[in-house]
Write a structure and sequence with these properties.
3-stranded antiparallel beta sheet, Glutaconate Coenzyme A-transferase, globular, alpha/beta, 11 strands, transferase activity, CoA_transf_BS, transferase, 8-stranded mixed beta sheet, 27% strand
Length: 233
Amino acid sequence: MINKKVANVSEALVGVKDNMTFMFGGFGLSGIPENAIAKLVQIGVKGLKCISNNAGVDDFGLGLLLQGKQIDKMTSSYVGENDEFERQMLSGELEVELIPQGTLAERCRAAQAGFPAIYTPAGYGTEVAEGKETREFNGKMYVLEHAFDADFGFIKAWKGDAAGNLIFKGTARNFNPNMCGAAKITVAEVEELVPVGELDPNQIHIPGIFVQRIFKGEHYEKRIEQRTVRQRD
């Protein structure tokens, strides 16, 4: 069995450099690879093209990379609660590709499966389809969307083993499984890292074949993006 365990986040990010394309799992602040993002901020890589559902908030998650002007392009489905993301987009400082959320997921999954492109009805007849090939199937029009081509995919899982098998927890599952194996190198950070054989095979969400590096993350803040509580009686 191949051992994909690396000692820490620094070792997991070997080969990262300026002007690369990165995928980041997560939805809002749920299931984001906190350790990988923090290290990318620390090492100061620039000119990044990032693929993620959104860009966190101003002072957390991918928002930290935006603050440092480390991202040149965001491919997302949602600007979200990030004022700096919105400001950079409207000012032209940041190139933004806004795409339907399902299309984002399927372009990840196409890359994961080795498909060069997919046809989707989402966006046909709108600005999303401008300049793209369209085709009719069974009387319905579809838009050709290309699979993503990323250098690194950064994934957050709850539990994993040294072979790279992963288990996600709750809503943190979101985009993470679709991004596993969708980049040239998939780096998974987990809260619990166990020896091979300790995970129940029936509980594994992503097999290790889709992961190249895995490490145990530290100090997860797991910040809540929007906290809603009911009024006291």
